[in-house]
Amino acid sequence: MSATRTTCAYCGVGCGIVATPTGERTATIAGDPDHPANHGKLCSKGTHLGETIGLEGRLLHPMIGQRRATWDKALDLVARRFRDTIAKHGPNSVAFYVSGQLLTEDYYVANKLMKGFIGSANIDTNSRLCMSSAVAGHTRAFGEDIVPASYDDLDAADLIVLVGSNTAWCHPVVYQRIMAARAARGTKLVVIDPRRTETADEADLHLAIRPGTDVALMHGLLAWCRANGAVDHAYLERHVATPDDFWKVFGEGSDLWSTARTCDVAPDDLRRFFDLFAATPRTVTMFSQGVNQSLSGTDQVNAIINLHLATGRIGKPGAAPFSITGQPNAMGGREVGGLASTLAAHMDFAPENVARVGRFWAAPNMATKPGLKAVDLFRELGHGRIKALWVMATNPAVSMPDAGRVREALATCPFVVVSDVIAETDTSVHAHVRLPAAAWGEKDGTVTNSDRTVSRQRAFLPLPGEAKPDWWIVTQVARRMGWKTAFAYDRPAEIWREHCRLSGYENDGARLFALPGQAALGNAAYDAMEPFRWGGTPFADGRYPTPDGRARLVPVVQKLLAKPLADWPMTLNTGRYRDQWHTMSRTGLSPKLARHREEPLVEVHPDDAAALALTDGALARVATPQGDSLFRVRIATTQRPGELFTPIHWTDRSATGGRTGLLPRPLADPISGQPGFKATPARITAVMTGWRGFVIVAGELAARPNCPWATRVAVPCGTAWDLAGNGDAAALDALLPAGQRLEAIDAARGTRRIAILRDGRLAAALFVTRDGTLPPRDWLVEQLAEPQAAPTLLAGRAPGVQVDRGPIVCACFDVGLKTILSTIAAQRLTDVAAIGTALKAGTNCGSCRPALAKLLAEGSTHAA
User: Fold this and answer.
1) Any alpha helices (H) in 33-164, and if so which ranges?
2) Please, where are the H alpha helices in 325-463?
3) Could you tell me the pTM of the whole model?
4) Alpha helix (H) ranges present in 279-319?
5) % of the chain exceeding 90 in pLDDT
6) Which helix (H) or strand (E) element contains residue 279?
7) 747 vs 593, more confident
8) How far apart (Å, rounded) are the C-alpha atoms in residues 679 and 199?
9) CB 825: neighbour CB atoms within 10 A?
């Protein structure tokens, strides 16, 4: 079968992919060597996309309640309920909550329908949760949401500063580009992050600042640059508007010692950073969620931009502030106005912009002011003011802060529509109508990555069942609501051309975002579109899209830090794991991606663990004023004392614990509306259980285990659950399917081992112990694929000596910790390249290379 050039479904790096179908729902995946974002490289998630394109759990037909419906009935119902709600309660009684997983064409029609025809701006996107502070910061400083950098700047920089970004895990291909620049030209790397991540392990300097002190750090650095002649006064004079009182805050409190005290870092380390920055004109400061996901996120963004403007490090090769986005099309959503606070084509709600877009759309009912941002939207849903909600391609019951309250709001909403790929999510259980949407591999349209490169995402699989593209679904509802002519699209290319025309409509250059050369693109040319970056090198001429053509230095102040609370003495930080994505609806299908972190862990500093009687590998309850959830404890010196870290990915579908979304406060930055996920007051307590175990099964269990701790992962040919609980573990027997039963019980040790065979093959196995040990389950998992089960099933191992690979370090090539350590010792390996030669580990995406380097440095004392 022929290969298709498309783009990855995951992060904002926007990697190009070559997908070659090998069967009805299978394909080989490779990096596109001609794509400018990745030049053929892929991370572990992209590499294993082929494991996620099956139909497991897919929503394949429209559903009204629990009954299958035709498209006509489902669409008519959605249109009628929205139309009736608007007629009775007004346009602001309805809302859309959309996603960076949508393609630009999907985003465009949803935004047009809500803001131009329904007449409300109540459409917001889950990108609000990851990069809206960057949008607000760009707009305040530049007059428009412009990312003034590209990946090429990483190749030209002499210093790269990563702020609040675990790039090695969250944007691995960009991280490998940084590592290549270091190898080729000696580029220095500074990482600013409260946690010592694997990104920080490879840095020349790591500053583990106190959470929430980014403004103080950047103020101190700018004051140092001013005192040491690194401020570019000529650039400021020509190109930047400086408020009269801007420099007044750079007095007492901005000196080196005060900054070190505020940020809780060693003064000598701070001086090293300050000196390095001041002496290095070619500097890129790349920032991500650690900066944006703060109650002061916009001020933190502007503190970084102020630094670059004041030192003239912008609009030049290798010199720029660089916001890197989390989702594949967060930028495309920003371009079409997918945020409630923007209109379209980088326009705001100024009266002249409302009139301009209204003329272009021939819109009968233009929204005239911003709508509800995500946190406010779900708060209003809970208060009953939003009476009809349409959720597209996202799972707010998991991802929103204070997710318990979000669920309550969804449950009481009179009418909820969910367009999704998956049949059952934590959000869709509250839906009155579910609409089957196209998935990655079936979609056709465009995306824009973090450095403004537009790429085609192309279909290489047929639409399964009755699934339809999101743009088609929205268009059909719009037509049924009475706007047939305005939504008479038959293909995404038509939507693309309209989007491009709007970008240039009455745009005399005041807005930098413009795609005029694309507006006349024919269908064949659209299909063949090559990646291109709009905007060239922004601000290279020193002109900015503001009324006077000058950028703005924005005065910001370091907010006072809250003191630890008696009942909530810890600070909770949240984030991503290397091989997982959002709520695991896609990555959770891949057995290989599950191996790196099979359970949700809470990372705790050893001093806190000792004080709180927490044991590595045991369970603990993390609680905040909003909610609580169980996690497996991992004692980690990489944590700052007094701080916790938990991952965002686990849902009710995949675990009884690990529900991080229940924990953060529903508070947001007052300017951007972005929630603060990085510093929630919390506490942690040990949880004891009477037994622990695991169950593996070919396919899926008929019911979820009913015990305090149960976490699910995909394995080849089936699924596996880790279990822990109290009471009689014999109740777990009911989970097992019918078949020939083999059983071994050791009452003295509280051990139960049960295997179920069907036609001689292993169908399921349950191993439980009260005070004994459990064997590694890898060999048992392998037995699911064997035509004849081995006679040693209840031993949990093959006859003779079995090699234990240990926890998986390299997901790309399935290489375990013990294999790596034994190979290092046997072959006397001394560098990461040698490990790659011996085992292939680290030779694909490179995201495990920091871990391999750490193994070499620490030897057998390392615990994966």
Assistant:
1) 44-47, 71-89, 104-112, 128-142, 152-156
2) 330-336, 351-361, 374-382, 396-399, 403-412
3) 0.94
4) 289-292, 297-310
5) 85
6) none
7) 593
8) 20
9) 11
Alpha carbon distance, N-terminus to C-terminus of the chain = 40
C-alpha atoms less than 13 angstroms from C-alpha of 38 in its C-beta half-sphere: 30
Whether the CB-CB separation of 283 and 162 falls below 8 Å is answered with: no
Question: What distance lies between CA 458 and its chain's CA centroid?
Answer: 22
Helix and strand numbers, DSSP H then E, in the chain: 27, 34
Positive or negative: CA dihedral 152, 157, 159, 163 = negative
Per DSSP, 594 falls in state: T
- Report the C-alpha gap between 551 and 306 in whole angstroms: 10
What's the one-letter identity of residue 654?
Answer: S
Query: What is the spatial distance between Cα 304 and Cα 141, in angstroms, rounded to a whole number?
Result: 11
Q: What is the pLDDT of residues 583-629, one digit of tens each?
A: 998 899 899 998 889 999 999 999 999 999 999 999 999 999 999 99
340-371: per-residue pLDDT in tens? 999 999 999 999 999 999 999 999 999 999 99
Per-residue exposure over 280-306, b if at least 16 CB sit within 10 Å of its own CB, e if not: bbbbbbbbbbbbbbbbbbbbbbbbbbb
Share of the chain above pLDDT 70, in %: 99
Q: Look up residue 466 and give its two tokens.
A: 């009755």
250: enclosing H helix or E strand: none
* Angle in degrees, 0-180, between the axes of helices 104-112 and 492-504, rounded to the nearest 10: 70
Q: pLDDT per residue over 280-330, tens digit each?
A: 999 999 999 999 999 999 999 999 999 999 999 999 999 999 999 888 999
Q: Concatenated DSSP letters for 15-35?
A: -EEEEEEEETTEEEEEE-TT-
| Region 830-848 average pLDDT | 86
Q: How far is CA 75 from the centre of its chain?
A: 31
Strand partners, 161: 190, 285
Residue entry with tokens 């349950």 = 766
- Torsion angles phi and psi, residue 222, rounded to 5: -65, -40
Task: For residues 383-401, give the mean pLDDT.
Answer: 97
Show Cβ contacts of residue 511 under 8 Å, excluding neighbours closer than 6 positions: 144, 345, 346, 347, 503, 545
- pLDDT of res. 797: 86
Measured in residues, the chain has a length of 864
- Adjacent-strand bridge partners of 725: 691
Question: Rounded distance, CA 387 to CA 389, Å?
Answer: 7
- Long-range CB contacts (within 8 A, 24+) of 380-386: 381/95, 381/409, 381/410, 381/413, 382/406, 382/408, 382/409, 382/412, 384/412, 385/92, 385/93, 386/93, 386/94, 386/95, 386/122, 386/413
**pLDDT of amino acid 436:** 98
Question: Is residue 700 predicted with pLDDT exceeding 60?
Answer: yes
Helices 214-227 and 256-263: crossing angle in degrees, nearest 10, is 170
Question: How many Cα atoms within 13 Å fall on the side-chain side of residue 416?
Answer: 26
Q: How confident is the model at residue 392 (pLDDT cuts 50, 70, 90)?
A: very high
For strands 94-98 and 532-533, give the pairing: unpaired
> Which tokens hold the place of 119?
């007449």
Mean pLDDT of the chain: 95
Rounded to whole angstroms, the Cα distance separating 57 from 60 reads 9
Which residues 6+ apart lie within 8 Å of 724 measured at CB?
A: 619, 689, 691, 692, 693, 707, 708, 709
Distance CA 549, CA 569 (A): 48
8-state DSSP, 462: P
Q: Is 738 left (phi over 0), alpha (psi -120 to 50) or beta?
A: beta
Q: How far is CA 773 from CA 316, 711, 745, 768, 803, in A?
A: 60, 19, 14, 9, 17
**Which amino acid is it at 429?**
V
